[in-house]
Amino acid sequence: MWSGLLYSACIGLSLIVIPGFVLLRAMWFSLPSSCVLSPVVSAALAAVSVEILSVLGIPCVWWTVCLAMLLPSFVVGAFRCVRCRLGASVDGADQICLFQRGESDKNDGVKRTWAAIAMSVAIGGAICIVVYLSSIGSPEAFVQNYDSAFHATHVKEMLDAQNYSSLTSGFYPSLWHAFVAMISSATGASSLVAANAFNSVIATFVYPLSSVALVATIFPGNSRRVALGGICCTSIAYFPWRLMLFGPLYSNVLAFSFMPAAVACFIKLVLPDAPGGYRLRFGIMFCLSGIALLFAQPNAIFSAGVYLVPFIMWRLYAGCIQNGSEAKNRFKGVTLAVLFSVLVAAVWIALASSQFLQATVTYARDTPLCLSDALKWAFHLSFVLRRPQFIAGTLIAFGGIALLAERGRRWVVFSYLLSILLYVVAVSFDGHFRELLTGFWYNDYHRLAAAASVFAVPLLVAGLDSCLLLLSRIAGLIADRIQCDPKRFSAEKMRKTVCISALLLLMITNAFPLPFLPPSIRSTGFDAVRFELNDMYDTAGVGPLDAEELAFLDRVESEVGNEAVIANQPFDGSVFAYATNDLNVLFDRYNPPTDEVHDAVRFELFSIADNEEVALAARELSVEYVLQLDAGENANGNASNSTIYAFAYVEDTWTGINEIDENTPGFTLLLSEGDMRLYRVDWADSGV
C-alpha cells in the first residue's frame, strides 16, 4: 500500500517539477534557479493547459496535459536554437539566477546553494514522514469533514469527466484537484492515495524550494543565510500541516507554497540596473506565478500583495535617493511612497466594497482570542495550535532587530508585521473593521496565520544567523583566551563546533518535545500536529465513515455495480462512497442541490409507493437503490451508536431516506448488517 503512495508521489513530483524545469532551462535560467522555481512554473503551465484542452474538447488525462505543459518549452527551445544558429550570444545566461555569490564566498557559494536546496528537501521530507505520513495510518486515509467531501468528490468528477478545468461551472480554483487527478490518471491509484501523495510532494519539495527561493532573493550574495534558509524553512509547525486539518484547505496549502517564489520573482523583476533580458524573463516568471496563485487559491495573491507593499514603498524611496541623499530627493521618495500606500488603500477599500466580493468579505467567523492573547500567540507562532514555539519566536524577534539595522532589509520586518497584524485582527476583532482588513481571506485567521508562518522564514533565518555569529565570536574569544593548541583545537575549530552544536540543539528542541523541560515550554507544535492528525484521520474512531461501513460499501459495490443511482443520506458517511468505491450516490456532497426534484427525494422518498410526484422525481433522477449507513434510531446525530457527521446536519431535511425501513412499501431489503441497509426501489426492478 505505501509503495503505491511512494510511486504516486514520484509521479506527482515529476508533474510539478519537470515541465517547469525544462522551460526555465530553455529560458537560460541557471540550474539552481530552475530547481527552486520549477514547481510554480509547472503549476502555471498546468493551469493554462487544462483550460485550453477543455475549450478544445480534448480529454484531460495525464499524458495529454503533460504534452500541453511541455509545448511552450519546445517552442522556446526552438527559438533559442534558431538564435544560436544566427550567431546570437548566450553569454548572459549566468545572470538569470536567484543565487548571487558574494566576493568572499565565490569558491564555496555554489556548494552552499546546492546544500541549501538539498537540506530543505531532506528536512522537509523527514518532517513529512514523521509528522504526516506516520500519523494518517493508511495511504488512503482522509479527513472526514465538510470540505474534504467536496475535495474527494471534485477530484473524482474530474477523472470521470476527463476535464480538469477550473471554469466548468463558474470559477473555482481547482489546481490542486487537477494535479491529484493527473496523478491518479497516471498511476491508477485511487484519488485518496493520489491526494496524500501530492500533499507529501508539496510539503517535501514545493514549499521548501519556494521558501529557499525567497531567502536567496532577500539575502543575495549571502550563501550562509541561504544555507540556513534550507534548514529553517520547514521548522514552523503551523504551515503547511494545520491547513491540512482545518477545512482541509488543500488549495490554500498549494497556493501558499507557491507564494514565496512568486514574491521572489517580483523582487528580482524590479531590482535596479538589471539587464533587459533579465528583467523580461523575471517578468514572465512573475506573470506565470500570478497564474499559478490564481488557479490554486486567489487569496494568496492578496497575501503576496500585502507582503510586497513595504518592499515597493522602499524601492520607490530608494530609487529617488540613489543618485544622492539631498533633502529634495528624500522628500520626493517619501512622497512617492506615501502616495503609493494611499493608492493601495483606495484600491483595497474599493474591492472590499464591491458587490461581487461581499459574500467573501462578510463571511462570518468566530473571534476566539482577545487582543493580548492574539499578540502572545502570534509572537511564539502557536496561532491556533496552542503549542508555543518559543525558540523560533525568539529567533524571529532577534531577526527583526538585526534586519532593522541592515539597510535595504528593513522592509522585510514591516512586511512580516503586516502579516501578523492581519492575523491579530482576524482572530480578535469583529465587525466592519475586520471585514475591511481580512475579508479577502473569508476573515479566516487560519489562512492568515499560515501566510504569516510562510513570511516568518526570512526573519527566522536572520535571527539564527545573528545568534550563530555571536556564538562564533564568543567561542573565538574563549579559544584565544585559553590559548589552546592550534593543532588540536584552534579558534576556528571551536567556532565551528559551537555553531554546529547550537544548530543541532535548535533543530532538536524545535522539532521534538523534550521531557526534562518545563511543560510550559516543552511542546514544539509538531507534537500537537501529530496528535490532531492521528485524531482526524482515524477512520476506526468517530468519523462518519468507519471501518465497518467501508467494508459494507464494498458489499454494496459488488451488489449494484458503479452505474446504478443510489439515493443516500450523505451525513451518515455515504457522501464519500463515490470517492472510495466509485458508487453513483445521488448526494456526493454535504450541501445537496435544492431543486424540487432532489427535495422530493430528500423529504419524501419513503412515500414513493403512494405519492406520484415522488415517484416521478425518483424516475427523473433514475434512483434504483437506497443506502443507509446509520439506519433507524442511529440516524439521529445524538444517538450513542450513530456515526452521523453532526456539523450542518438537520435530521428533518432527510426524512425521505431516514424513515425507510424493511416495512416501507416500494422498497426491498437487499443487504443488512448492523445499522447498515441497502434497499432496491421496486419500480426500478419491475421496469415500470
UniProtKB/TrEMBL annotation:
InterPro entries: DUF6541
Bilayer-crossing regions: 6-24, 61-79, 114-133, 197-219, 226-243, 249-271, 278-295, 301-321, 333-357, 377-404, 411-429, 449-471, 497-517
Keywords, in A-Z order: Membrane, Transmembrane, Transmembrane helix
Signal peptide: none
Protein name from the UniProt record: Uncharacterized protein
Any Pfam family: DUF6541
